[in-house]
């Protein structure tokens, strides 16, 4: 009888191990497959949950921003409609002569008080006055050029006349100041 070869013996061990492994795998595979499936489902649900959290946070931030903007700028139409009231009160005070001031002192004092109260209400609601002076530089972000004219002893871009003051509502331009601008070329 021939003696079994070492290689045959190793092959038998490998075959036995392979059978044992296959048997073990047949028992584990359904459980492992179910675990893999549950892990995938868990990961998908975690992803959906994180996205839902991010969407909710974005919606909260967006609504907070909208609320702040509505609070700060919601009255801009009313504010814009009140600007002619300011202009008319200012004109009334500017055209009063000294004689009229003597005769109607109480009336003009009432107009001045009304003007101060209007400015106080404007300030309370974030409306600030843009009051350029003759000689200031023209700023297209705050001023509207109503005309250009060459004026001696000025530089191009200098304000030469203020037709109407402007207003800001917080950080937004409500109405630009209406000005005349020098067009004198550099000499």
Q: What does this protein look like?
A:
The chain is of the alpha+beta class and 187 residues long. The protein folds into three domains: 7-73; 75-125; 126-187, Head domain of nucleotide exchange factor GrpE (Nucleotide Exchange Factor Grpe, Chain A, domain 2), CATH 2.30.22.10. It has helices at 6-73, 76-95, 98-103, 105-124, and strands at 127-130, 143-149, 159-164, 166-169, 172-175, 177-182. The strands form two sheets. A three-stranded antiparallel sheet has the order 1-4-5. β4 and β5 form a beta hairpin. It is elongated, with a radius of gyration of 41 Å. It starts with 5 loop residues before the first helix and ends in a 5-residue tail after the last strand. The relative contact order is 0.09. The model has no long low-confidence stretch (mean pLDDT 88).
Secondary structure: elements and pairs:
Layout: H1 6-73, H2 76-95, H3 98-103, H4 105-124, E1 127-130, E2 143-149, E3 159-164, E4 166-169, E5 172-175, E6 177-182
Helix pairs in contact: 2-4
Concise structural overview:
The chain is of the alpha+beta class. It is built from four helices and six strands.
How many domains, in number, for the residues? 3
DSSP summary: helix tally: 4
Beta content comes to 15-25%
Class derived from helix and strand content:
alpha+beta
Q: Sum up the overall morphology in one term.
A: elongated
Helix percentage range: 55-70%
Number of strands: 6
| Average pLDDT figure | 88
First-to-last CA distance: 125 Å
Whole-angstrom Rg: 41 Å
User: SSE string, helix = H, strand = E?
Assistant: HHHHEEEEEE
Side-by-side strand order of the widest sheet? 1-4-5
Biggest beta-sheet profile: 3 strands, antiparallel
Low-pLDDT parts are none
């Amino acid at each position: 009888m021939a003696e079994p070869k070492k290689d045959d013996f190793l092959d038998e061990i490998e075959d036995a191990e392979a059978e044992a492994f296959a048997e073990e795998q047949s028992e584990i595979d359904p459980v492992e497959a179910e675990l893999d499936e549950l892990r995938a489902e868990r990961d998908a649900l975690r992803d959906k949950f994180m996205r839902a959290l991010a969407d909710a946070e974005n919606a909260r931030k967006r609504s907070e921003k909208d609320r702040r903007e509505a609070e700060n700028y919601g009255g801009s139409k009313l504010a814009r409609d009140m600007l002619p009231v300011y202009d008319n009160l200012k004109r009334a005070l500017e055209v009063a002569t000294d004689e009229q001031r003597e005769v109607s002192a109480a009336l003009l004092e009432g107009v001045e008080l009304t003007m101060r109260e209007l400015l106080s209400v404007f300030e309370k609601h974030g409306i600030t006055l843009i009051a350029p002076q003759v000689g200031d530089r023209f700023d297209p972000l705050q001023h509207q050029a109503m005309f250009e004219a060459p004026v001696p002893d000025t530089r191009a871009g200098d304000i030469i006349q203020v037709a109407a003051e402007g207003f800001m509502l917080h950080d937004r331009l409500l109405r630009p100041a209406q000005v005349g601008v020098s067009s004198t070329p550099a000499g």
